[in-house]
Amino acid sequence: DTAVSQTPKYLVTQMGNDKSIKCEQNLGHDTMYWYKQDSKKFLKIMFSYNNKELIINETVPNRFSPKSPDKAHLNLHINSLELGDSAVYFCASSPLANYEQYFGPGTRLTVT
Amino acid sequence: AQTVTQSQPEMSVQEAETVTLSCTYDTSENNYYLFWYKQPPSRQMILVIRQEAYKQQNATENRFSVNFQKAAKSFSLKISDSQLGDTAMYFCAFMYSGGGADGLTFGKGTHLIIQP
Question: Contacts of residue B103 in chain A, CB cutoff 8 Å?
Fold first, then answer.
């Protein structure tokens, strides 16, 4: 059974388009996160959600918007995609805020 | 804000050797966790080992162990009897444990190559 899943695993799209990445966890965790890994492999947190409430937003452009329809899901919507948005996006979850995190497989987004 | 520094962008050792990856961090907090994550070419993030800052005893997980020096803010990872499957990016990460959901702060990673 997959603990944290993301769809799609690969996403190729053109500049200016709007796209979404879905994340689901079946671990019963309260907190979910989105991270971005750039072309140099550097990982940085984007958002954190605890019990469906946004906790942090680390200076991410407002073209990025997380949406949490329920505790098990945290989707990432990206509007007006730019070349610089090309990266791998990871979803993660943890049982408590600031505890061990379980990562999804990542979504490689390529903007052309 | 905390920072995590990994000073070795790449390391290469022979199979069965022991290798140590270095990590230093900077924080004004007293309660936190430190982690090492492994990212193989499949890109899956895999937790290797975790250390709670309040614990003096160094964490170990089979062939993996850490040397945690809280005063020096150092958290190195030792891999014993290295195997080909250990080839991966290794990330050191910090997380505040005092409440909120700040998430992980990562270092830039060390690319470890195990040679046959």
Answer: 33, 35, 45, 48, 56, 101
| Digit-coded pLDDT (tens) for B55-65 | 889 999 999 99
Exposure of A63 in the CB half-sphere (CA atoms within 13 A): 13
Q: Spell out which residues of chain B touch residue A33, defining contact as CB-CB under 8 Å.
A: 101, 103
From the list B91, B95, B109, the residue facing A98 with the nearest CB is B95
Q: Reduced to 3 states, what is the DSSP secondary structure of residue A27?
A: coil
Edge-to-edge, what's the strand order for the sheet holding A4-7?
Answer: A4-7, A19-25, A73-78, A64-70
Q: What is the tens place of the pLDDT at every residue in A49-74?
A: 887 688 777 789 999 999 988 889 99
